[in-house]
């Protein structure tokens, strides 16, 4: 398989998962308004933080004064200048499907193209809160349908493995981003004492953002709490949106590819950090710094795959901080 075809299939998987997760984030964030009491406001800046698109938003709309619901929703759904928006992710996936149409089912193109045209023609009409959920539901349903069509009708050869790897890396990355930002400053109130009674709402919002609330209740059988939610979303081996599940899925796919050892070492380092974590202690002393290490590790997995398969022979990039994963997010 040509390296450019492998890279296209890898990014196809990433863009499908990115569009779905972004749509879910906006949907859950909008519904959270109904759960909060009067006197507490819902900030929209965390959605920009989750996608690592702060600089792009400032360039597009200006400073903090522009962080209104209307601007953020437009930026994340229909703004094609934001390369992490729903519309931009679907457009990029559509272009990849056009390029690799010989390797993917025709049904996938038809469904994705229909949603792409829907966002182009009627996306702006579905930005106001009254119509927003209808448009987001269509995006989510299409992305889930894409997963089903590609998984059921595409030969599970090397190309499929690259796409599967892309899906799981993107999901692991999105899960860490959602946990990192949503557990810090999702709800804005006048004082920390005022916020304390509603901590469970915040943790339930984290679960809902990943469609994990029902699975959490079935698996944990305890009240929603910070440490238990973190264990489920980061360490659970059976839930497809958990970080450890995604890393294991990538590890299972790698043996079907040639010369995969470099990528396996990067995965092992991140898995060790997650498996050894004490979440009660991390919540007290610094969850953000620990998640930053996980995100850097996921970025290193992406770089290892890129150097091994997509751009072989290139020298490795210089060491970076958390910006590695921001660059991955906006690719």
TrEMBL record:
Pfam families: Alpha-E. Residues 312-331 are annotated as: Disordered. Coiled coil: none annotated. InterPro entries: ATP-dep_Glu-Cys_Ligase-2 (IPR051680), DUF403 (IPR007296). It comes from the Bacteria. Residues 1-310 form the DUF403 domain. Residues 322-331 have a biased composition (Polar residues). Signal peptide: none annotated. This is Alpha-E domain-containing protein. It comes from Solimonas marina.
């Amino acid at each position: 398989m040509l390296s450019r075809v492998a890279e296209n299939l890898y990014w196809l998987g990433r863009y499908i998962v990115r569009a779905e997760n972004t749509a879910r984030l906006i949907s859950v964030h909008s519904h959270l308004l109904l759960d909060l009491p009067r006197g507490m406001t819902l900030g929209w800046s965390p959605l920009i933080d989750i996608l690592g698109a702060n600089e792009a938003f400032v360039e597009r709309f200006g400073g903090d004064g522009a962080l209104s619901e209307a601007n953020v929703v437009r930026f994340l759904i229909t703004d094609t200048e934001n390369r992490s928006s729903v519309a931009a992710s679907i457009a990029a996936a559509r272009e990849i499907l056009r390029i690799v149409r010989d390797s993917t089912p025709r049904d996938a193109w038809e469904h994705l193209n229909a949603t792409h045209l829907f966002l182009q023609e009627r996306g702006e009409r579905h930005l106001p809160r009254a119509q927003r959920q209808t448009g987001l539901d269509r995006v989510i349903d299409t992305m889930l349908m894409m997963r089903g069509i590609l998984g059921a009708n595409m030969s599970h050869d090397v190309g499929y493995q690259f796409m599967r790897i892309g899906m799981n890396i993107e999901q692991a990355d999105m899960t860490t981003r959602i946990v990192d930002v949503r557990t810090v400053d999702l709800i804005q109130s006048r004082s920390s004492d005022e916020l304390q009674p509603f901590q469970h709402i915040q943790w339930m919002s984290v679960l809902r953002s990943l469609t994990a609330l029902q699975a959490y209740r079935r698996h944990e059988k305890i009240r929603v709490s910070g440490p238990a939610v973190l264990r489920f979303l980061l360490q659970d081996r059976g839930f497809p949106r958990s970080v450890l599940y995604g890393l294991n899925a990538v590890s299972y796919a790698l043996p079907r590819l040639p010369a995969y050892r470099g990528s396996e070492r990067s995965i092992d380092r991140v898995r060790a950090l997650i498996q050894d974590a004490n979440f009660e202690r991390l919540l007290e002393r610094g969850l953000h710094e620990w998640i930053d290490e996980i995100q850097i590790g996921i970025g290193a997995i992406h770089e290892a795959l890129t150097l091994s398969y997509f751009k072989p022979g290139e020298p490795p990039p210089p060491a970076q901080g958390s910006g590695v994963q921001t660059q991955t997010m906006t690719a």
